[in-house]
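Review form for a predicted model. The reviewer records the input and the model, then writes brief findings.
Reviewer: anonymous (R2)
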Amino acid sequence: MTLLALENVSKAYGRGSDRRPVLCDVSLQLDGGELLAIWGIRHSGRSTLLRIAAGLERPDSGDVRLEGESLVGHGADAVSSRIGYCRRSFGPGDTGTVLDRIVESQLVRGALHEEVSIRARRALLRVGAEQCASLRPSQLDGTETMRVAIARAIASEPRLLVVDDPTLGVDPLRRDEILLLLRSLADEGIAVLTNTDRATGLAGADRALALGDGELRGEVHPTLAPVVQLRRPA
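Model under review:
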């Protein structure tokens, strides 16, 4: 069964003669346990596409459905426990540890207080960032920041994980580690939607779609696409 579906989604920014189309009649489907990567150059609209898919931004037209439920007009609050949108920033200030900030983010989502610490620690362990629990966000390097961001997004055990440019700011020698992590999460049943402007960022994806001039190109239905395997280090 299709987990996420974008149906004829369009989006433009600006007004009047400055209005610029970003997405034009875009459709795609994503199944549970699938890793789908959107490739596009900077300012191609790939980040906009992911925000709309996560219910964080409304399209000008078209529909976005998660498990058959429309997200348009409901926003992220209606599906907050089913979608994990990966944010690198922890917001203003540098107070509290990484563990504290993940716990806070879960409480805001409405999770029960007695569960959030366990979930946060479990998520950090799952992404290989358990050593970061007692650090402040400002003490993390680029790779640790990405791992912690993924941990925060999966702490609520979502059905869909949305990650905007997962290798941005990550040490080039460690980018494959992040891509392998996303692949492993998809193998566990989480649908993963991500994007990149690098061909190397497509490694491990079940499908890769190209976004340019507002149009999405490639096999937009999951059953029609081949699997692209990511080579694991020896």
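Findings: The chain has two domains: 1-82+159-234, 88-157.
Further findings: The CA atoms of residues 106 and 112 lie 8 Å apart.
Recommendation: see findings above.
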